[in-house]
């Protein structure tokens, strides 16, 4: 995976999928964390981001997916668990090929790297109280951009 550490700092190359179906979005949450994110994972060395997203979804959801348009490229600078992150994330449209995954009552719990991870559907209009990260997604998911959008989220002071 394309992650490396230097002291308290971590660089992370992530890919995620915005899976929206009938007014709901699929989110994931790791046990012990107080926030939700779009499903996805880390890109491997020499792996393109579309392939990485398909691989991650096959591993985590156990089904094939269609990866659509690239919606956002997000450079994030934030703190998590006492570590400063510099994360570059590619966020694509995503559609699972397994019909059962598309039912809005569907949930899934997996163990990944020894950690319990939950997947759950949320109504788009009810995201305001959800601690969704990055936070811009609470509104942005309701109106996906027509062109790929580049964003910089800086929660850490410049060094």
TrEMBL record:
PROSITE patterns: NUDIX, NUDIX_BOX. GO terms for molecular function: hydrolase activity. The keyword Hydrolase applies. Residues 1-145 form the Nudix hydrolase domain. Keywords: Hydrolase. Its cofactor is Mg(2+). This is Nudix hydrolase domain-containing protein. It comes from uncultured Rubrobacteraceae bacterium.
């Amino acid at each position: 995976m394309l992650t490396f550490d230097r002291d308290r700092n971590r660089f992370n190359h992530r890919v995620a999928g915005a899976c929206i179906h009938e007014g709901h979005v699929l989110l994931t949450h790791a046990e012990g964390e107080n926030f939700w994110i779009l499903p996805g994972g880390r890109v491997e060395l020499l792996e393109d981001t579309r392939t990485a997203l398909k691989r991650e979804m096959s591993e985590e959801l156990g089904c094939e997916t269609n990866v659509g348009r690239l919606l956002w490229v997000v450079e994030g600078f934030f703190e998590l668990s006492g570590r400063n992150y510099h994360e570059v994330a590619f966020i694509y449209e995503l559609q699972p090929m397994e019909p059962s995954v598309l039912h809005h009552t569907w949930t899934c719990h997996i163990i990944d790297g020894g950690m319990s991870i939950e997947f759950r559907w949320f109504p788009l209009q009810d995201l305001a109280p959800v601690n969704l990260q990055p936070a811009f997604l609470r509104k942005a998911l309701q109106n996906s951009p027509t062109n790929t959008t580049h964003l910089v989220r800086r929660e850490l002071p410049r060094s």
